[in-house]
């Protein structure tokens, strides 16, 4: 039996979900994951009042928590299955990670700022998530020890999709990433053809912070 998701108790959160549906986030499991994830927990004190607006917001280390519509659209585009092992690059606040964790078997998430990583880990503990594994490191290198992955989501923009990440995808896997040099990038989806190749589609235009090389010093 598929249970009908309850609308969130907070009316601002319920309105946010209605807005996502209207914009084309229609996958019930994705909507349910967003509806059961308290975005205020991931939002800095200063922006609490805006936690349920459909906007990206600043977090520590000059980074951002993604816009809920973009999170919904990218998660839907990834076509996650319950058994999927997912690699996420750019943990940030941990908001997107939490949504992925509700839809998949295991999430491996890499972040280059220690500060962000440990704040996100605290949130995962608070929410009782048991299927998220984090790593401080350069996500451009992926996570070779745990590869291959069924799904890869990149939440920072690179001029080209990192080869290491495509190489760590299973033959029928799916990778979603913002790709481009400027402030506006293409959101691309790479779908494995079962052998060594991929088909690539551009799904939307997006604005992400850059994927930077190496780990942040004094972070
Ligand atoms: N999905 C996050 C948004 C993250 S913003 C959220 O919902 O909160 C992008 C994140 O990618 C930032 O935290 C940034 O520090 C991280 N990042 C950038 N380059 C990286 C790299 N090479 N390896 C790992 N993380 C990286």
Give a structural overview.
This protein has a single domain, classed as Rossmann fold. The longest helix has 13 residues. It is α/β, with parallel strands linked by helices and 219 residues long. The termini are far apart. It is globular, with a radius of gyration of 16 Å. It contains six helices and nine strands; from the N terminus they run H-H-E-E-H-E-H-E-H-E-E-H-E-E-E. It binds S-adenosyl-L-homocysteine. The site of S-adenosyl-L-homocysteine (SAH) has 23 residues, from strand 2, helix 4 and strand 4. S-adenosyl-L-homocysteine binds next to strand 2, helix 4 and strand 4.
Q: Could you say which overall geometry the principal axes of the C-alpha atoms support?
A: globular
From the alpha carbons, calculate the radius of gyration and give it in angstroms.
16 Å
- CATH class placement: Alpha Beta
Helical percent range? Answer: 25-40%
CATH architecture: 3-Layer(aba) Sandwich
What's the rounded overall pLDDT mean? 96
Please identify which CATH superfamily we are dealing with: Vaccinia Virus protein VP39
What share of the residues does DSSP label as strand, in percent? 15-25%
Q: What is the CA-CA span between the terminal residues?
A: 46 Å
Number of strands: 9
- For the largest sheet, list the strands in their spatial order: 5-4-3-6-7-8-9
Q: Low-confidence segments, ≥5 residues, pLDDT <50?
A: none
Q: CATH topology, what is it called?
A: Rossmann fold
- SSE order: HHEEHEHEHEEHEEE
| Number of H- or I-type helical stretches | 6
